[in-house]
Prior knowledge:
5 helices, five-stranded parallel beta sheet, alpha/beta, three-stranded antiparallel beta sheet, single chain, 8 strands, Rossmann fold
Amino acid sequence: MSAVAPLPVLLEGRDLAVTRGVAKLFQGVSFRVSAGEWIAVRGPNGSGKTTLLRCVAGLTHAEAGSVTRAGDFIYAGHLPGINDSFSADENLRGALALRGVAVDAAAATDALERVGLARRRQLPARRLSAGQRRRIGLARLMLDPAPIWILDEPLTALDDAGQALFGDLLARHLARGGLALVATHHPLAPAPVRELRIGE
């Protein structure tokens, strides 16, 4: 008997709509992202980019529409999600543990070294700069095997080197058959297959 082929990695939204009070934040938003692709979500401040990503991740209710996620996913909001009392190493391993991803000390140390935090990995996060705190999130992307990335402004507070590092991580993720939906105001290489503009 032949093995059943795995379902392709896919992220799709159909006719999504969200209302805030009496105002329609957005409506009729549809997209489809397949393995090896990423879409840039763009729009002015307050247009609903964060709300859209939270709907896609199942963290916010949409009044209309549907979301299909064929594959495990990782969501990272526009805040770094760091515990100030924990070290970079503890924050990294703790975030992965919450996702059920087990990593040993050597793998965590290597990832933190690759993002430039080797000498600061045992410092409390409160002693790290905003960009260094963001780099913990980059290390998390290195170690989490989820094929779907849903990311809200991942370049915030990162310097040029940090932004280039994220671009490299994204390219490697896509080359492995992953996909991404990313809200960003910044140009990125590799370029998105398309842009999803809301609120314009």
